[in-house]
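Lab meeting, item 3. Inverse folding demo.
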């Protein structure tokens, strides 16, 4: 059975609230194919099913998904969010930083950069937050929420003009 076939079987179960059965399907398939690169989305989906019931297994599933396919940036995003939720801010930042590379699609890079900026802002590490958000906006300037955060960070640091020339264009 291909990963796509498996997902087609599991999705209706998930939609019907039968998450235990969907997780069992994923587990059975992963027992046979879990080390293959094609298993990355299955590890990711399995982690999504487990996130409310088993944080440790969720963490392992996201780690495995991202290790098998570093371009599956969603696994790194979710892994970082899980770590952040556990109060492991430094580890979350490391996951997002390590997941960043030019081969990712622009939206994936922006999402990782935005999480880096948000968490650094929450930690009151304003220059680092500003740097991440600036890089995100240089990749995609059409992010109104990010523009707002970026300008707020510059004002909070008394960095004038608060709107740099490159953002006005």
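The presenter then showed the designed sequence:
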């Amino acid at each position: 059975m291909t990963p796509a076939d498996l997902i087609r079987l599991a999705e209706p179960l998930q939609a019907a609230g039968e998450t235990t059965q969907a997780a069992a399907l994923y587990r059975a398939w992963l027992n046979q194919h879990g080390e293959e690169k094609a298993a990355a989305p299955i590890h990711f989906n399995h982690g999504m099913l487990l996130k409310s019931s088993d944080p440790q297994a969720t963490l392992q599933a996201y780690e495995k998904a991202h290790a098998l396919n570093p371009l599956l940036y969603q696994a790194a995003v979710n892994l970082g969010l899980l770590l952040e939720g556990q109060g492991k801010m430094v580890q979350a930042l490391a996951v997002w930083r390590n997941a960043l590379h030019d081969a990712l699609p622009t939206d994936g890079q922006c999402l990782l950069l935005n999480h880096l900026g948000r968490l650094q802002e929450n930690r009151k590490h304003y220059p680092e937050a500003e740097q991440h958000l600036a890089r995100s906006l240089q990749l995609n300037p059409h992010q109104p929420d990010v523009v707002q955060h970026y300008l707020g960070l510059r004002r909070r640091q008394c960095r004038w003009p608060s709107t740099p020339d490159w953002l006005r264009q």
